[in-house]
Structures are given as C-alpha cells and as structure tokens.
Design goal:
The chain is of the alpha/beta class. It has a single domain, classed as 2-Layer Sandwich (Nucleotidyltransferase, domain 5), CATH 3.30.420. The protein contains three helices and five strands. Helix 2 links the parallel strand 4 and strand 5. Helix 1 runs parallel beside helix 2. The chain starts with a strand and ends in a 17-residue tail after the last helix.
C-alpha cells in the first residue's frame, strides 16, 4: 500500500502540512517495501485550484491513502473519484502519522484503482 502524507519538508521527521493543496511536499511511503520518497507539490504557491492539482499529482504517484491536516471539497472529490482513501485532521510528524495509520490499518487490502469490481467492502 502506498501512503501519501502532506508534509512541510522532504523528511519523515517533517511536520504534516495543515493544508493538502498548499503542502510544500508529498511523501510517499510504500508499506510493503518500507521505502519512501519526497516529491515537491506541483501546485506550488498557487492559490486557486491547488487542491485539484495536488490531487492529480497524488493520483499519478499511485497513492492508496492520503494523510493530511485538511483537504478542500474539490480535492476530496478528485481523490475519491480515484478510489484514494482520505484521512484528515492529522498532526505531528510524517513518521508518527504513518506509524499511527499502520498500527490501526496494517497492510489492509486496498482495491486497485483500475479495477472494475464493485464487491469490495468499504
């Protein structure tokens, strides 16, 4: 499973960004390989449509879940249309948020975004 965390910096020790669309970085953590990589947010400092641009980037990075402080309705809609799970109200460091999520959810089965099956449990 790939976990995307909106981050203030490019390290696991970075704080979680309060706003998804304006996060300076996205950190993608692969729960199977335990590897991670930081990506600058392509939305940059733009004020209009940042959530949509960020959501498109996260979808291209093949995230299964997003951990963030807050995400606006347009970003939520875009991520949900790609079957990407959203966890809001996160705070602390990227690493602590990932650990908390993994402790609660582990390597849960996440349906592939390209799947046409409709019988997956919510």
């Amino acid at each position: 499973m790939k976990i995307c965390v909106s981050a203030e910096g490019p390290e696991l020790s970075s704080l979680i960004a309060e706003e998804f669309g304006h996060a300076p970085y996205f950190i993608i953590y692969d729960s199977f390989t335990h590897k991670w990589e930081a990506f600058p947010n392509e939305a940059g400092p733009s004020t209009e449509g940042a959530g949509m641009v960020a959501a498109e980037q996260v979808a291209r990075l093949e995230a299964d879940v997003v951990l963030t402080g807050f995400i606006g309705p347009h970003g939520v809609k875009k991520l949900r249309s790609r079957n990407i799970k959203i966890i809001q109200d996160e705070e602390g460091t990227v690493e602590s948020s990932i650990r908390k999520y993994m402790k609660k959810h582990g390597n849960e089965c996440v349906p592939a975004r390209t799947s046409t099956r409709t019988d997956f449990p919510e």
